Amino acid sequence: AQTVTQSQPEMSVQEAETVTLSCTYDTSENNYYLFWYKQPPSRQMILVIRQEAYKQQNATENRFSVNFQKAAKSFSLKISDSQLGDTAMYFCAFMRPIQGAQKLVFGQGTRLTINP
Amino acid sequence: EAGVTQFPSHSVIEKGQTVTLRCDPISGHDNLYWYRRVMGKEIKFLLHFVKESKQDESGMPNNRFLAERTGGTYSTLKVQPAELEDSGVYFCASSQRGLAGDETQYFGPGTRLLVL
For residue B4, is pLDDT > 90? Predict the structure, then answer.
Protein backbone atom coordinates (compact mmCIF):
# COMPACT_ATOMS: atom_id res chain seq x y z
CA ALA A 1 0.00 0.00 0.00
CA GLN A 2 1.13 3.50 -0.74
CA THR A 3 1.94 5.90 2.08
CA VAL A 4 2.65 9.60 2.08
CA THR A 5 4.55 11.36 4.85
CA GLN A 6 4.75 15.06 5.58
CA SER A 7 7.24 15.49 8.39
CA GLN A 8 6.53 19.15 9.14
CA PRO A 9 3.23 19.60 11.01
CA GLU A 10 3.66 23.37 11.11
CA MET A 11 5.83 26.00 9.47
CA SER A 12 5.97 29.75 9.73
CA VAL A 13 7.86 32.26 7.57
CA GLN A 14 7.87 35.98 6.91
CA GLU A 15 6.14 37.44 3.91
CA ALA A 16 8.29 37.48 0.76
CA GLU A 17 10.51 34.66 2.00
CA THR A 18 10.86 31.35 0.24
CA VAL A 19 9.61 28.23 1.99
CA THR A 20 9.91 24.55 1.18
CA LEU A 21 7.46 21.92 2.36
CA SER A 22 8.65 18.35 2.39
CA CYS A 23 6.85 15.22 1.32
CA THR A 24 8.05 11.66 0.95
CA TYR A 25 6.11 8.68 -0.25
CA ASP A 26 6.42 4.96 -0.51
CA THR A 27 5.30 2.93 -3.50
CA SER A 28 6.40 0.06 -5.66
CA GLU A 29 4.69 1.56 -8.69
CA ASN A 30 6.66 3.12 -11.51
CA ASN A 31 3.91 5.28 -12.94
CA TYR A 32 1.89 7.56 -10.70
CA TYR A 33 0.86 11.13 -10.05
CA LEU A 34 1.74 13.43 -7.17
CA PHE A 35 -0.19 16.47 -6.06
CA TRP A 36 -0.01 19.37 -3.67
CA TYR A 37 -3.35 20.66 -2.46
CA LYS A 38 -3.88 23.73 -0.33
CA GLN A 39 -6.77 24.50 2.03
CA PRO A 40 -6.89 28.11 3.27
CA PRO A 41 -8.64 28.71 6.61
CA SER A 42 -12.38 28.07 6.30
CA ARG A 43 -12.11 27.70 2.56
CA GLN A 44 -12.17 25.07 -0.14
CA MET A 45 -9.24 22.78 -0.85
CA ILE A 46 -7.69 23.58 -4.20
CA LEU A 47 -5.05 21.99 -6.36
CA VAL A 48 -1.74 23.82 -6.30
CA ILE A 49 0.40 21.70 -8.57
CA ARG A 50 0.71 18.19 -9.92
CA GLN A 51 3.55 16.05 -11.22
CA GLU A 52 3.49 12.98 -13.44
CA ALA A 53 6.12 10.48 -12.36
CA TYR A 54 7.17 9.72 -15.93
CA LYS A 55 8.14 13.37 -16.47
CA GLN A 56 11.65 14.27 -15.43
CA GLN A 57 11.01 17.99 -15.55
CA ASN A 58 9.79 19.49 -12.29
CA ALA A 59 6.35 21.07 -12.46
CA THR A 60 5.97 24.80 -11.86
CA GLU A 61 2.96 27.07 -11.44
CA ASN A 62 3.92 30.71 -11.03
CA ARG A 63 5.47 31.03 -7.56
CA PHE A 64 4.99 27.33 -6.82
CA SER A 65 7.43 24.69 -7.93
CA VAL A 66 8.29 21.16 -6.94
CA ASN A 67 11.50 19.25 -6.50
CA PHE A 68 10.62 15.75 -7.62
CA GLN A 69 13.25 13.15 -6.79
CA LYS A 70 11.84 9.85 -8.03
CA ALA A 71 14.64 7.62 -6.80
CA ALA A 72 14.47 9.16 -3.35
CA LYS A 73 10.64 9.18 -3.45
CA SER A 74 10.62 12.81 -2.46
CA PHE A 75 8.26 15.53 -3.66
CA SER A 76 8.85 18.88 -1.98
CA LEU A 77 6.94 22.09 -2.70
CA LYS A 78 8.75 25.41 -2.91
CA ILE A 79 6.83 28.64 -2.54
CA SER A 80 8.78 31.68 -3.68
CA ASP A 81 8.06 35.25 -2.63
CA SER A 82 5.47 34.00 -0.13
CA GLN A 83 2.31 36.04 0.33
CA LEU A 84 -0.17 36.35 3.18
CA GLY A 85 -2.71 34.50 1.04
CA ASP A 86 -0.46 31.45 1.02
CA THR A 87 -1.38 30.80 4.64
CA ALA A 88 -3.13 27.42 4.56
CA MET A 89 -2.92 23.71 5.24
CA TYR A 90 -0.92 22.02 2.52
CA PHE A 91 -1.50 18.38 1.68
CA CYS A 92 0.72 16.18 -0.42
CA ALA A 93 -1.09 13.37 -2.22
CA PHE A 94 -0.33 10.32 -4.36
CA MET A 95 -2.47 8.68 -7.00
CA ARG A 96 -2.15 5.55 -9.11
CA PRO A 97 -3.34 6.23 -12.67
CA ILE A 98 -5.47 3.12 -12.91
CA GLN A 99 -8.98 3.48 -14.27
CA GLY A 100 -11.38 2.95 -11.44
CA ALA A 101 -8.74 3.17 -8.74
CA GLN A 102 -7.77 6.81 -8.74
CA LYS A 103 -8.20 7.42 -5.05
CA LEU A 104 -5.84 9.95 -3.54
CA VAL A 105 -3.56 8.95 -0.68
CA PHE A 106 -2.78 11.97 1.46
CA GLY A 107 -0.10 12.96 3.90
CA GLN A 108 -0.91 14.39 7.30
CA GLY A 109 -0.67 17.98 6.13
CA THR A 110 1.56 20.95 6.93
CA ARG A 111 0.06 24.10 8.43
CA LEU A 112 1.88 27.02 6.83
CA THR A 113 1.60 30.52 8.25
CA ILE A 114 2.91 33.55 6.39
CA ASN A 115 3.59 36.41 8.79
CA PRO A 116 3.47 40.07 7.74
CA GLU B 1 -18.93 27.01 -13.71
CA ALA B 2 -20.08 26.01 -10.24
CA GLY B 3 -17.65 24.02 -8.15
CA VAL B 4 -18.30 21.03 -5.92
CA THR B 5 -20.81 21.92 -3.23
CA GLN B 6 -21.55 20.17 0.03
CA PHE B 7 -24.38 20.47 2.49
CA PRO B 8 -24.50 21.11 5.36
CA SER B 9 -21.30 22.95 6.11
CA HIS B 10 -21.51 21.97 9.77
CA SER B 11 -23.53 19.39 11.68
CA VAL B 12 -23.65 18.73 15.40
CA ILE B 13 -25.53 15.63 16.46
CA GLU B 14 -25.73 13.32 19.43
CA LYS B 15 -24.36 9.82 19.49
CA GLY B 16 -26.92 7.41 18.09
CA GLN B 17 -28.57 9.91 15.79
CA THR B 18 -28.55 9.81 12.01
CA VAL B 19 -26.93 12.37 9.74
CA THR B 20 -27.02 12.64 5.96
CA LEU B 21 -24.39 14.59 4.08
CA ARG B 22 -24.91 15.71 0.53
CA CYS B 23 -22.47 16.40 -2.28
CA ASP B 24 -23.19 18.01 -5.64
CA PRO B 25 -20.31 17.42 -8.03
CA ILE B 26 -19.29 19.63 -10.89
CA SER B 27 -21.76 19.16 -13.73
CA GLY B 28 -20.62 16.47 -16.14
CA HIS B 29 -18.18 14.84 -13.75
CA ASP B 30 -18.75 11.10 -13.70
CA ASN B 31 -16.30 10.43 -10.88
CA LEU B 32 -17.33 11.29 -7.35
CA TYR B 33 -15.23 10.61 -4.27
CA TRP B 34 -15.82 10.82 -0.54
CA TYR B 35 -12.94 11.41 1.85
CA ARG B 36 -12.76 12.03 5.58
CA ARG B 37 -10.30 13.81 7.84
CA VAL B 38 -10.47 12.92 11.49
CA MET B 39 -9.02 15.59 13.78
CA GLY B 40 -5.29 16.01 13.26
CA LYS B 41 -4.91 13.02 11.00
CA GLU B 42 -4.54 12.56 7.29
CA ILE B 43 -7.40 12.74 4.82
CA LYS B 44 -8.55 9.22 4.08
CA PHE B 45 -10.45 7.84 1.12
CA LEU B 46 -13.92 6.44 1.77
CA LEU B 47 -15.37 5.53 -1.60
CA HIS B 48 -15.56 6.26 -5.30
CA PHE B 49 -18.55 6.40 -7.62
CA VAL B 50 -18.44 6.28 -11.39
CA LYS B 51 -21.81 7.68 -12.35
CA GLU B 52 -24.25 5.79 -10.13
CA SER B 53 -22.04 2.74 -9.57
CA LYS B 54 -19.78 2.19 -6.59
CA GLN B 55 -16.36 1.63 -8.10
CA ASP B 56 -14.40 1.30 -4.90
CA GLU B 57 -15.77 1.34 -1.35
CA SER B 58 -12.71 -0.11 0.32
CA GLY B 59 -12.35 2.88 2.63
CA MET B 60 -15.79 2.75 4.20
CA PRO B 61 -15.20 2.22 7.93
CA ASN B 62 -18.18 -0.04 8.68
CA ASN B 63 -21.78 -0.72 7.80
CA ARG B 64 -23.02 2.33 9.66
CA PHE B 65 -21.99 4.32 6.59
CA LEU B 66 -24.15 4.21 3.48
CA ALA B 67 -23.39 6.15 0.32
CA GLU B 68 -25.68 6.55 -2.64
CA ARG B 69 -25.61 8.33 -5.96
CA THR B 70 -28.96 7.74 -7.53
CA GLY B 71 -29.11 8.95 -11.13
CA GLY B 72 -25.41 9.60 -11.19
CA THR B 73 -25.71 13.22 -10.13
CA TYR B 74 -25.51 14.22 -6.47
CA SER B 75 -24.45 11.83 -3.75
CA THR B 76 -25.45 11.34 -0.14
CA LEU B 77 -23.49 9.81 2.69
CA LYS B 78 -25.58 8.65 5.62
CA VAL B 79 -24.18 7.75 9.01
CA GLN B 80 -26.58 5.70 11.11
CA PRO B 81 -26.23 5.49 14.05
CA ALA B 82 -23.46 8.04 14.53
CA GLU B 83 -20.66 7.33 16.97
CA LEU B 84 -18.18 9.70 18.61
CA GLU B 85 -15.33 8.52 16.37
CA ASP B 86 -17.26 9.59 13.28
CA SER B 87 -16.49 13.23 14.06
CA GLY B 88 -14.36 14.90 11.44
CA VAL B 89 -14.50 16.74 8.16
CA TYR B 90 -16.08 14.91 5.25
CA PHE B 91 -14.87 15.99 1.83
CA CYS B 92 -16.37 15.28 -1.51
CA ALA B 93 -14.44 15.54 -4.77
CA SER B 94 -15.32 15.06 -8.40
CA SER B 95 -13.45 14.59 -11.64
CA GLN B 96 -14.13 14.09 -15.31
CA ARG B 97 -13.76 10.64 -16.74
CA GLY B 98 -10.85 10.68 -19.11
CA LEU B 99 -7.49 9.13 -19.59
CA ALA B 100 -6.57 7.22 -16.47
CA GLY B 101 -4.56 9.51 -14.27
CA ASP B 102 -5.42 12.66 -16.16
CA GLU B 103 -8.34 13.30 -13.87
CA THR B 104 -7.73 16.09 -11.46
CA GLN B 105 -10.04 15.89 -8.48
CA TYR B 106 -11.84 19.06 -7.46
CA PHE B 107 -12.85 19.28 -3.84
CA GLY B 108 -15.85 20.67 -2.07
CA PRO B 109 -15.56 22.79 1.08
CA GLY B 110 -16.30 19.82 3.34
CA THR B 111 -18.89 19.10 5.99
CA ARG B 112 -17.64 19.40 9.55
CA LEU B 113 -19.40 16.73 11.62
CA LEU B 114 -19.32 16.71 15.40
CA VAL B 115 -20.86 13.82 17.27
CA LEU B 116 -21.44 14.48 20.97
Answer: yes
